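F.,

This is the one I mentioned.
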């Protein structure tokens, strides 16, 4: 038993050494209330995102290139959704007072549709959650045999849509330490682990 334990510890230390050598780190960003494992400091680009109901929201993309792989986290900020919709010119049919809320509820479906529309063979397409924030995961084999792993989550408590994408070389190990490492944070850097209310909403 002692030998077995020593073997396990040695394996974990070896794995940790490989991970550190490759530059993996926990990246924490309190402006967007999240942390995630990345193979280096990301390049941050300010951008915009066109929503399901044709509203334009501010967004940021955090990107890291590592060898033959590309990792990105796009975060769409819905904080001012009500004001943005109120300022839009709309047809009478699109003036519902709940449109700004529905825009957020539709965000995961829209982002998934955009990723599917790029083409490639979809090998996984299923509901998912991280810390009970619901979303969707996709796995796609691209035309050049690279593979894209995507996770999409709408955290209504921080009014942010998270779109995770990792594209890796053919026959590469799935990027689990990126894909499963998303954590939601409060403004002081503490991790938030939500519970579900009886109606399925996070609390």
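My design for it:
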């Amino acid at each position: 038993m002692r030998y077995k334990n020593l073997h396990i510890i040695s394996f974990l230390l070896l794995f940790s050494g490989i991970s550190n050598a490759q530059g993996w780190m926990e990246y924490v960003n309190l402006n967007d209330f999240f942390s995630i494992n990345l193979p280096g400091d990301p390049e941050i680009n300010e951008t915009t995102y066109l929503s399901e109901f044709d509203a334009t929201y501010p967004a940021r993309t955090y990107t890291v290139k590592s060898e033959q792989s590309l990792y990105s986290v796009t975060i769409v900020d819905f904080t001012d959704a009500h004001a943005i919709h109120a300022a839009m010119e709309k047809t009478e049919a699109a003036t519902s007072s709940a449109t700004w809320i529905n825009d957020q509820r539709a965000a995961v479906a829209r982002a998934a549709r955009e990723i599917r529309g790029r083409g490639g063979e979809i090998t996984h397409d299923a509901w998912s959650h991280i810390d009970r924030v619901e979303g969707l995961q996709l796995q796609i084999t691209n035309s050049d045999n690279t593979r894209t792993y995507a996770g999409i989550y709408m955290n209504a408590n921080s009014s942010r849509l998270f779109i995770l994408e990792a594209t890796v070389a053919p026959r590469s190990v799935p990027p689990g330490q990126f894909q499963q490492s998303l954590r939601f944070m409060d403004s002081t850097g503490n991790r938030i682990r939500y519970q579900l209310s009886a109606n399925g909403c996070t609390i």
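Confidence is low (pLDDT under 50) at residues 1-21.

Talk soon.
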